[in-house]
Amino acid sequence: LILILATAALFAANLFFGSVNIPAEDVVGIITGTDSSIAPAIRFIVVNSRLPQALTAMLGGAGLAVTGLLLQTAFRNPLAGPSILGINSGASLGVAIVMLFLGGTISAGGYSVGGYVAVMAAAFAGSMLIMGLLLLFSSWLKNDLMLLITGIMVGYMTSSVISLLNYMSSADGVQSYVMWGMGNFNGVSLSRLPLFALITLAGIVMALLLIKPLNIILLGSNYARNLGISMRRVRNLLLLATGLLTAVITAYCGPISFIGLAVPHIARLLFRTDNHRVLMPATLISGAIVALGCNLVCVLPESTILPINAVTPLVGAPVILYVILRERHGRH
Question: Which residues in the chain come in under a pLDDT of 50?
Fold first, then answer.
């Protein structure tokens, strides 16, 4: 209940505060539709910028957090996250090819697409390509650890290709790519929000369907097989859910760091349980809180907006360090 109230409070704060100072009564008047005398420019900032940005942060944070939980449970590794399997790297490679190699435009059969649409399409295609490779490897590799290592190696290879593209690109191309790589929640307009929300919610629903199998997997692979749980099917569904969520959020918002890695640990520390019936919703809400909080910090400095990846490590890194130190202390 406290987490839900905190989410609501931070969501409201994202509407009331920003790089442009807008009186609270104007924001209330715009949201409730009771004041028609407010300037169109002010109305545009609240409805077309702050509202979709807050919704994107809430959904994106929840989606990334739950992917981290799925991967940490499936691979039994506290340091597994959306970036560890190389899906983020796939999105980054797609964007790098468009920005650094194709000059920001995709052309095929006489049709050309440029700008934001080209970047989004490239990021989504790159993520889904890596996810397809992982699903293929998943059918060959029986061992979860081997699949995890394969994902890390795929990530290294894509990073290497990105470095080569950066080296051969123009200064403008490199700057555009670096800016995209810093991540932000303000790239999803009101018109683009429905598709983003639909795909993200579909991924979250897939994750929620995995609650029971994940709880059984915690008891051991052999126990799960004895109960008739197909480990390969669960793993493929898990990869599909994490791939879809990571692909769409990275495509729309850039490669956002630490939320997927740190937030599941925050939920575990708060509720002190491994039961996914509690942990899954707690992680979803905690992810929304962290993303909304970080977004609020990014937009508070007047006349400027900070990139989201400048703030998320300040939240995520101390959590991960605490988890590592606690694990070491527990062993001693």
Answer: none
The answer to whether 53 and 295 have CB atoms below 8 angstroms apart is yes
- pLDDT tens, position by position, 22-41: 888 888 888 887 767 778 88
Q: Mark 70-85 as b/e (b = at least 16 C-beta within 10 Å).
A: bbbbbbeebebbbbbb
